[in-house]
Design goal:
six-stranded mixed β-sheet; two-stranded antiparallel sheet; 8 strands; elongated
Length: about 240
C-alpha cells in the first residue's frame, strides 16, 4: 500500500510539473523550410561570363525562391456592426356547432333525425381560440486591430509565379508565451522594393495571435461557466 501511495504521489508531481512547463509549443504547420539546393553549372575555361558566379547589380532583392525571407507588415483592422429586429403575431379561432345525424337542426328535428345532444348542458359544440406573439431584437458590434511585423519564408512557388509563405513568431514574456502565426499566398508584383508586403495583399490569409501561460489561463472561463451560457442551458 505504501508503494502504491508513493507511485501516485510521484505521478501527480510529474503531471503538475508538466502542466507548469513554460516551454513554447511550436506549431509544425508554420515551420520554415530550407531552400532548395541549386546545381552550380560547370565552369568553362576561356568564357568571360560564368553563370555560376553572376551578381545582379541593378536588381532589388525580393523573395522569389523557396526558403527566401519576406517581411509582412501587419495592417489588420476590421469593424463590424449588425442590428436585427423581428416581430411575429399570429391568431387562430375555430368553432364547431352541435352535430346531428341525418339532419341539421337539433331543436326542430324531424322523424329520422338523431341529434347527438339536445340540451344546453349536454352540447357537443365547442369553440377554440389561440394567439401568439413574438418579439426579438439583437445588436452586435465588433472591432479588431493588429499591427506589427513578422518575417515569413517562402515554402512553395506556384506555376504562375505566386508564392506560398508561412511563418511563426514566439515571444516569451515573464511566465507566458505569445504566438503570432501567418500563412497565405502572395504575388511577387505586390512585394515592395525593401522586400516587404502589406498583410492586406495576402490572399487566403490565415493570421492568428494567441497566448498561453498563467495570464492567459486567468482570462479563460471555466467549464461550468461556459455551460451556463451555452446553447445546452435550457433556461
Amino acid at each position: 500500500m505504501t508503494l502504491f501511495v508513493k507511485l501516485v504521489a510521484l505521478g501527480s508531481l510529474v503531471l503538475v510539473t508538466g502542466c507548469m512547463s513554460n516551454a513554447p509549443k511550436r506549431d509544425p504547420g508554420y515551420a520554415a523550410v530550407r531552400p532548395v539546393a541549386v546545381t552550380v553549372p560547370e565552369s568553362q575555361d576561356g568564357a568571360i561570363f560564368n553563370a555560376g558566379n553572376n551578381i545582379s547589380l541593378f536588381e532589388d532583392y525580393r523573395a522569389r525562391r523557396v526558403g527566401d525571407i519576406l517581411t509582412v507588415k501587419l495592417e489588420e483592422k476590421t469593424d463590424a456592426e449588425k442590428e436585427t429586429e423581428t416581430k411575429i403575431s399570429k391568431s387562430n379561432r375555430n368553432s364547431i356547432t352541435n352535430p346531428t345525424v341525418f339532419g341539421t337542426t337539433p331543436q326542430f328535428s324531424l322523424p329520422g333525425q338523431l341529434p347527438l345532444a339536445s340540451t344546453n348542458n349536454n352540447n357537443l359544440a365547442f369553440e377554440l381560440g389561440s394567439s401568439s406573439n413574438f418579439s426579438g431584437q439583437g445588436d452586435s458590434d465588433q472591432s479588431n486591430k493588429l499591427t506589427g511585423n513578422i518575417s515569413v519564408s517562402v515554402v512553395e512557388v506556384l506555376p504562375n509565379g505566386n508564392l506560398i509563405v508561412r511563418g511563426e513568431k514566439v515571444i516569451t514574456i515573464n511566465q507566458g508565451n505569445e504566438y503570432l502565426r501567418l500563412a497565405g499566398m502572395i504575388s511577387p508584383r505586390d512585394i515592395d522594393a525593401d522586400n516587404t508586403i502589406s498583410s492586406k495583399r495576402i490572399a487566403d490569409a490565415q493570421i492568428s495571435y494567441v497566448g498561453d501561460g498563467p495570464t492567459n489561463d486567468a482570462n479563460v472561463m471555466g467549464w461550468l461557466g461556459r455551460f451556463f451560457i451555452s446553447a445546452l442551458m435550457p433556461f
